[in-house]
Amino acid sequence: MTRHLSKQIPAIYERYAHEWDADRNSGIWNDKKWHDRFITCLREGATVLDLGCGSALPVARHLVQHGLRVTGVDTSPTLIALCRKRLPDQEWVVSAMQAITLHRRFDGILGWDSFFFLTHDDQRNMFKVFAAHAAPSAFLMFNTGTEHGEAIGKYRGESLYHASLDAAEYQLLLDQFGFEVLEHVVEDPTAGGRTIWLARSRRQAGSTTSKPN
């Protein structure tokens, strides 16, 4: 499979930033139930790291409306500019999610409709990023494919790279980096067929963080 296409994802989203924003917000928000589920896990005022935040609509705005503090990360300067305009009191960072190092921890971490654009190795390495940014008992939610492989989708005529590990490897990585799976739903028909992982960090307040073997 043509993994080099994964390197084109940032350029595609920057090129079509306004079109993507319009498309994302033009129809029914069919994955809202999972963001509502994520919100119920967090106390008011909790901090959320939104990796691949897009234009802040609809997800980040919804989190903020429920009293959460958002730090959004996206590769597209245009999408981040929209975020800053719409939610200026939140924090917005132009960066690839796999390169982010903020030296602080969050109560919730999202990798929604973004994590699956990474190659297999980048996905594996992201669990170090998740662990490094997870506060004690933090919640992590991301969505994936259903089996190990690569696929090429389309957006406005452009080829979009997608990849997935298999469920057993995701489970292993979550366990290795200190996360307990709370929910795993495969191809949820009420959320556009998405496959969702919701996990919680096992690290407790006052504990020390050790590197996995």
TrEMBL record:
<dbReference type="Pfam" id="PF13489">
    <property type="entry name" value="Methyltransf_23"/>
</dbReference>
<protein>
    <submittedName>
        <fullName>Methyltransferase</fullName>
    </submittedName>
</protein>
<dbReference type="InterPro" id="IPR029063">
    <property type="entry name" value="SAM-dependent_MTases_sf"/>
</dbReference>
<dbReference type="GO" id="GO:0032259">
    <property type="term" value="P:methylation"/>
</dbReference>
<keyword id="KW-0489">Methyltransferase</keyword>
<dbReference type="GO" id="GO:0008168">
    <property type="term" value="F:methyltransferase activity"/>
</dbReference>
<keyword id="KW-0808">Transferase</keyword>
